[in-house]
Design goal:
The chain crosses the membrane at residues 36-64. 68% of the residues lie in helices and 0% in strands. It is an all-alpha fold. It is flat and about 55 Å long. The chain starts with a helix and ends in a 5-residue tail after the last helix.
Length: 69
Amino acid sequence: MPYHKLKRTLALPREEEERFTFAEIEEGVYFRGHNLWLLVLSMAIASIGLNINSPAAVIGAMLISPLMG
């Protein structure tokens, strides 16, 4: 493989401005309806799992949270 192809393949992306990144994230946030309930349920399960020292409950909360998106 030629050097320039390898260099282009392994190159890291350039950094973006923080303001642009924050604005993009805030634009996609939607905490109403079922998203809010899933967030609350996930937080409750994670809190209970941390209090009783249960890795399974914490992992369960991590599995619920992606359902919000």
